[in-house]
């Protein structure tokens, strides 16, 4: 194919960001959209010249897409991925992949069996500074990792419900957890503490507003991730330490400190959503899977860390990881 026909399940905020990025890509023809709020689908369809459908089944049955962007809340995946796989449609599934690891692993197996291209929305991996940090760490022995995601409250109604979002760690701080894995490798054990401390006045809120997760890595390194939505500003960062060095990734800025001194590198990636989505489209068009930095099989391991942390916080006990992809 010379152009990829792209459709969307979901037309909310994150889908709109993908649409805006893909509209700049001359290798893409956006053709189809469905949303549970018909007006949202119709608005997107009018803006980008797509057909709005009354159901995702109708969209899939129309044979109108080669690539499907699944941009739904964590609780709303249903059997979208399975039905797309049955039709040989390539899948970009936004993070997080879901809220049940057994279901996610079954989806992963179906995706592998279908032989389609798959990716998830861990967009920070596409920063040039993230790749430079990873390359620097390649031959280093990591001792400790410190990471944080500190921000304000998200007013979206479903986000405040644990049964629908999985909480901040699963739905939002997952980006930081994924960067921890991207730089320092897989996690073998978690021990988490979480609490709803100062946001109890928010209506229908039942997710923790603060949390900390101790991490043990397969390499033997240790670390932690802190998360909250009680701040007036937005701060994120991952710091990786070893003997005589540390690597700090804060958004698009990379700072490396070692015996030779300190160097700061600013990202030149530009539109990171465009970089991520274009890489996926190129993978579909060329068959080159190496262009995809966050395939479904790898993304599920990030979800596994966050869901295990939730279980640890609930039980008060460490949780061992290591389930099969």
Automatic annotation (TrEMBL):
Highest taxon above the source species: Bacteria
Pfam families membership: GFO_IDH_MocA, GFO_IDH_MocA_C3
InterPro entries found in the cross-reference section: Gfo/Idh/MocA-like_OxRdtase_N, Gfo/Idh/MocA_Oxidoreductase, GFO_IDH_MocA-like_dom, NAD(P)-bd_dom_sf
Residue span, GFO/IDH/MocA-like oxidoreductase domain: 132-243
Domain Gfo/Idh/MocA-like oxidoreductase N-terminal positions: 5-117
Gene Ontology molecular function: nucleotide binding
The protein's name: Gfo/Idh/MocA family oxidoreductase
Organism: Paenibacillus lycopersici
Taxonomy of the source species: Bacteria, Bacillati, Bacillota, Bacilli, Bacillales
């Amino acid at each position: 194919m010379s152009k990829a026909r792209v459709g969307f399940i979901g037309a909310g905020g994150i889908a709109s960001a993908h649409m805006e990025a893909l509209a700049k890509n001359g290798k893409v023809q956006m053709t189809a959209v469905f949303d549970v709020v018909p007006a949202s689908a119709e608005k997107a369809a009018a803006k980008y010249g797509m057909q709005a459908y009354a159901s995702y089944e109708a969209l899939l049955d129309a044979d109108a897409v080669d690539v499907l962007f699944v941009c739904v809340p964590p609780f709303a995946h249903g059997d979208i991925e399975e039905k797309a796989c049955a039709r040989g449609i390539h899948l970009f599934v936004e993070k997080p992949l879901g809220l049940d690891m057994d279901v996610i692993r079954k989806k992963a197996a179906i995706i592998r069996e279908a032989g389609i291209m798959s990716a998830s929305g861990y967009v920070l991996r596409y920063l040039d500074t993230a790749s430079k940090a990873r390359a620097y760490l390649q031959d280093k022995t990591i001792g400790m990792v410190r990471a944080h995601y500190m921000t304000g409250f998200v007013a979206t109604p479903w986000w405040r419900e644990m049964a629908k979002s999985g909480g901040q760690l699963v739905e939002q701080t997952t980006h930081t957890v994924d960067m921890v894995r991207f730089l320092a490798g897989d996690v073998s054990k978690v021990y988490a503490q979480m609490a709803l401390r100062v946001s109890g006045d928010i209506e229908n809120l039942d997710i923790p507003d603060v949390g900390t997760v101790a991490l043990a890595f397969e390499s033997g390194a240790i670390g932690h991730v802190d998360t909250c939505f009680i701040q007036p500003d937005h701060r994120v960062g991952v710091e990786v330490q070893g003997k005589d060095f540390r690597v700090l990734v804060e958004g698009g800025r990379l700072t490396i400190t070692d015996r030779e001194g300190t160097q700061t590198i600013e990202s030149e990636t530009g539109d990171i959503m465009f970089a991520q989505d274009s890489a996926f489209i190129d993978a579909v068009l060329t068959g080159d899977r190496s262009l995809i930095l966050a395939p479904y099989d790898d993304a599920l391991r990030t979800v596994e860390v966050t869901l295990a942390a939730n279980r640890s916080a609930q039980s008060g006990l460490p949780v061992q990881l290591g389930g099969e992809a």
